């Protein structure tokens, strides 16, 4: 994880869950993460094609220049990215994985906003892991942010963290060096080339890095 917002939110979520795969939705205390609230959101898993925003922070809504509550999270992605995200969401709700996603937000003027998104499972009594706690934070705040809405998004990178793994920033151990993975542009869509390391899998057109070495 590169962004401080996501590191802080992951650490809070990890402390709440303890030895469980995920904490309960009712355990989330907004006061404990008040500095992150503008970038955070909660999704409700309705079905395999619908993950509805139940809550969305003010900075996140301002970035998109619209209220996100009630909208489908899978709206506004290209077909291949949407299929990959649907698979990732299933891994989160069914297998309690966490996901770290590099996101490019695109405006109608072809401006691009680089963001990092974190998705974490939450348990609802009687429903299972039907909620997802997330954050999406930009690395820069260009002059046009909040003036020109993010109309669509694309995935630039994707990593999964499984329940029994811990990211390196929590363990204090350095992340291992990785062989660089070039991006290949095919028909305007970014594809990740096959990696030169173990612990990866394909999700749709994307290469997903398993493990907590983030």
Explain this structure.
The protein has 214 residues and is an alpha+beta fold. It has four helices and ten strands, in the order αββααββββαββββ. The strands form two sheets. It has an eight-stranded mixed beta sheet, sandwiched between helices. The protein has a two-stranded antiparallel sheet with strand order 7-8. A hairpin with a 2-residue loop joins β7 (183-186) and β8 (189-192). The radius of gyration is 16 Å and the shape is globular.
Going by helix content, strand content and strand pairing, the class is alpha+beta
Portion of residues within helices: 10-25%
What does the largest sheet look like? Answer: 8 strands, mixed
Shape label: globular
Radius of gyration: 16 Å
| Low-confidence runs | 174-198
Q: Terminal Cα separation, in Å?
A: 5 Å
Strand order across the biggest sheet?
2-1-5-4-3-6-10-9
Q: Would you count the extended β strands for me?
A: 10
The ordered H/E elements are HEEHHEEEEHEEEE
What is the average of the pLDDT values?
84
Total helical segments:
4
Strand content: 35-45%
InterPro entries: DUF1457 (IPR009922)
Pfam family, one: PAS_5
Protein name: PAS domain-containing protein
């Amino acid at each position: 994880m590169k962004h401080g917002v996501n590191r802080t939110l992951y650490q809070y979520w990890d402390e709440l869950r303890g030895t469980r795969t995920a904490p309960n939705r009712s355990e989330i205390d907004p006061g404990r993460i008040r500095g992150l609230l503008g970038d955070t959101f909660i999704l409700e898993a309705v079905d395999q094609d619908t993950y509805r925003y139940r809550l969305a922070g003010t900075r996140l809504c301002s970035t998109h220049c619209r209220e996100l509550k009630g909208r489908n999270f899978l709206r506004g992605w290209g077909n291949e990215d949407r299929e990959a995200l649907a698979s990732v969401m299933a891994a989160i709700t069914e297998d309690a994985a966490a996901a770290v996603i590099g996101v490019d937000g695109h405006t109608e003027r072809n401006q691009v906003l680089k963001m990092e998104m974190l998705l974490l499972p939450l348990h609802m009594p009687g429903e299972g892991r039907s909620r997802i706690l997330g954050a999406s934070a930009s690395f820069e705040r260009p002059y046009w942010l909040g003036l020109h809405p993010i109309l669509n998004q694309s995935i630039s990178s994707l990593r999964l963290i499984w329940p029994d793994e811990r990211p390196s920033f929590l363990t204090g151990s350095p992340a291992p060096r990785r062989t660089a993975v070039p991006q290949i542009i095919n028909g305007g869509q970014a594809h990740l080339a096959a990696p030169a390391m173990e612990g990866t899998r394909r999700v749709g057109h994307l290469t997903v890095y398993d493990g907590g070495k983030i």
